[in-house]
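Records of this kind hold a single protein each, on a pair of labelled lines. Below, a sample record shows both lines together.
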Amino acid sequence: MPGTAAAGTPELVELIAQLDQDRAWLLEQIDRGRWSDLRLDLAALERELGQLLAKAAERLDPTT
């Protein structure tokens, strides 16, 4: 919830950053052709994860 005291804790910010790095790694692996039989499912997962992380980051930003 925006504006809560725990909204911008460093641990949450760090977790979101780490998950975003993992998402970027997944995208890179997909682009390199890894797991070709799962490409469509993994690409959809990557997109959804990106959207989730963007929403989480927005909620942690006290200016929004």
